[in-house]
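Pasting as-is:
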Amino acid sequence: DVADETLIRPEGERQFSVRGSTPVEEFNEFFRAELSDHDADTVAGFVMHQFGRMPRRGESITVNGFEFRIVRADRRRIDALRVIVPDVTAEESGDADGERAGADESGTA
């Protein structure tokens, strides 16, 4: 089944379903993120390392602006997570310095 093989799937605005077996490198490419893959090869391993223990279903942790919520897990591994990505449009629209720089340049021409 193709749907079962999908590692990262959109679930709504800024929300994605991510399989625990997703390689950190693939996560970084998909989201243009910079999660470290030094301590783990998969997203599940990365999240477990961030918790410092095996998290339970429903627990969440935020790393580099990404919220990782455990959706499906057993005592040994994380099978599925919900990832909420940072709202970059809010950060970009708050760039008042760029607007002022543009106004200053047009005033001197």
